[in-house]
């Protein structure tokens, strides 16, 4: 295959890569994208964000049919779970969207390659494709957007049947009676919610003293109480030290400050202790591209590697939250920088969401961070129990917390646990993007009755003038 020349080549067709490639093509750059997997969309679309949300949605319907519809006067008898159909629906959602990404590549005249990429030098990439065909691509700029992979524990190797990563947890052939999840972060909580609703007894073993990673502590404490009502068991301050894998069960050994036991027998273990940057076989070490201790590519404020100003990196392979929407914005920023524009990402307004029920959503700083930085602030909270739409919806647990600067009233953070928090957080993101104050939120119209009124009341309560309680 003859040599091909491009203005920019993106390595990795996840959210960062394919969105960045589209923006680059829109700006008139001759663009190519390389993906090692058969379908585009990366982890997010194929084995992450999208399939997990499809399963969450299906499991919520199943739980509602069993426990909630009767409260609405809707009687359903003989509810049964058809797991193969549930999984088929998830697969169809993924297939439809991956086909959509492929269509967007064609629509924007982006040249695509399926194969393993190896950066030969600052301007050349070798792609190992099917039948060992190895075209050599020449480009002015290279953008590494290869994403991340699940972290594996040395004593719990993934077989994706009994010891599963987030990928295997999407396709279990049967509902396990007992399921252990190592790590009570976003992935663990979401997949635990799916299998708990479908019938599993779910136990979390978390090394930290709280769930939800770095999310706001008081919000997470309230969230944990809600989940415990749903039947989850949490072993915090717990270190898993070993495992004995048998034919019919797995015996986890652990040390815990919150539980007197030392072992737990389960049918399936989901290891959800985090993800690591995926930079294997790219040739980075040979080129002298620097990585940090976590394996992330070091870049400057313009996403350039220090040694090669024309080689960029975005998304999960660089510092920052491993979130699809963060990668997307970085991909757009790089494309605009290459086109001579002022590409920029505001990391103060990157939202984080846990898509359980209730959902959790957060943007900006937490109270712990504000205290650590000695930033004076006021906090306003408001519960969903006082909201008319939440009452009609049938779910009133949770609250909204608004954090604003004590002197300027500028919004510093918003934290929500409650129904449809993932949709509600957008209002806070926009307000913060424009440097808005709690007063701005408090004085803005919010349709009645809506869940968004809880955000307004929390903003009002920053100044202790909530009107609905």
Structural summary, described in words:
By secondary structure, the chain is α/β, with parallel strands linked by helices. The protein has 3 domains: 4-150 and 276-345, FAD/NAD(P)-binding domain (3-Layer(bba) Sandwich), CATH 3.50.50; 163-273, FAD/NAD(P)-binding domain, CATH 3.50.50; 349-462, 2-Layer Sandwich (Enolase-like, domain 1). It is built from 13 helices and 22 strands. The chain has helices at residues 15-26, 42-47, 49-68, 83-107, 186-197, 217-229, 284-287, 324-338, 367-372, 388-393, 421-433, 438-443, 453-462; strands at 4-11, 31-35, 111-114, 116-121, 124-128, 136-144, 148-150, 163-164, 178-182, 201-205, 233-235, 238-245, 250-256, 263-266, 268-271, 275-277, 311-313, 352-354, 359-364, 377-383, 399-405, 411-418. The strands form 5 sheets. Strands 1, 2, 3, 4, 5, 6 and 17 form a 7-stranded mixed β-sheet that branches. A 5-stranded parallel β-sheet has the order 8-15-9-10-11, covered by helices on one side. The longest helix is centred in the N-terminal third of the chain and has 25 residues, at 83-107. The chain is globular, with a radius of gyration of 24 Å.
């Amino acid at each position: 295959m003859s040599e091909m020349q491009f203005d920019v080549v993106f390595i990795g067709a996840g959210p960062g890569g394919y969105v960045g490639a589209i923006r680059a093509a829109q700006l008139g750059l001759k663009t190519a994208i390389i993906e090692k997997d058969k379908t585009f969309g990366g982890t997010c679309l194929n084995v992450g964000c999208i399939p997990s949300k499809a399963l969450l949605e299906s499991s919520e319907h199943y739980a509602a049919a069993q426990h909630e519809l009767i409260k609405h006067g809707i009687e359903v008898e003989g509810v049964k779970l058809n797991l193969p159909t549930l999984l088929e629906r998830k697969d169809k959602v993924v297939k439809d969207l991956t086909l959509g990404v492929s269509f967007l590549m064609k629509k924007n005249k982006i040249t695509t390659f399926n194969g393993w990429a190896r950066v030969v030098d600052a301007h050349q990439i070798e792609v190992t494709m099917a039948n060992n065909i190895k075209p050599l691509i020449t480009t002015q700029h290279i953008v590494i957007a290869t994403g991340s992979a699940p972290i594996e524990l040395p004593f719990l190797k993934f077989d994706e049947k009994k010891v599963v990563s987030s990928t295997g947890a999407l396709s279990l052939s049967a509902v396990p009676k007992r399921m252990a999840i190592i790590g009570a972060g976003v992935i663990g909580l979401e997949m635990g919610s799916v299998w708990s609703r479908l019938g599993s007894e779910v136990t979390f073993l978390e090394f930290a003293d709280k769930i939800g990673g770095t999310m706001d502590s008081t919000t997470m404490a309230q969230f944990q109480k809600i989940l415990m009502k749903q039947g989850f068991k949490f072993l915090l301050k717990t270190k898993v030290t070993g495992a004995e894998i048998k034919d019919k069960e797995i015996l986890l050994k652990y040390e815990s400050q919150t539980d007197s036991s030392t072992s737990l027998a389960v049918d399936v273990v989901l290891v959800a202790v985090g993800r690591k940057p995926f930079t294997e076989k790219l040739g980075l070490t040979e080129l002298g591209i620097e990585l940090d201790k976590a394996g992330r590519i070091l870049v400057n404020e313009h996403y350039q590697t220090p040694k090669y100003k024309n080689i960029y990196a975005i998304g999960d392979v660089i510092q920052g939250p491993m979130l699809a929407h963060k990668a997307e914005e970085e991909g757009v920023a790089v494309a605009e920088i290459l086109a001579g524009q002022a590409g920029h990402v505001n990391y103060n307004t990157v939202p984080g969401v846990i898509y359980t029920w209730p959902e959790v959503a957060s943007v900006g700083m937490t109270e712990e961070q504000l205290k650590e930085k000695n930033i004076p602030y006021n906090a306003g909270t408001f519960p969903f129990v006082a909201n008319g739409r939440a009452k009609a919806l049938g779910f009133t647990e949770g609250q909204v917390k608004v954090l604003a600067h004590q002197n300027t009233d500028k919004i510093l953070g918003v934290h929500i646990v409650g129904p449809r928090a993932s949709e509600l957080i957008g209002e806070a993101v926009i307000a913060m993007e424009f440097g808005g104050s709690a007063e701005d939120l408090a004085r803005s119209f919010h349709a009645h009755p809506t869940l968004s009124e809880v955000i307004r009341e929390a903003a009002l309560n920053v100044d202790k003038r909530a009107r609905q309680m």
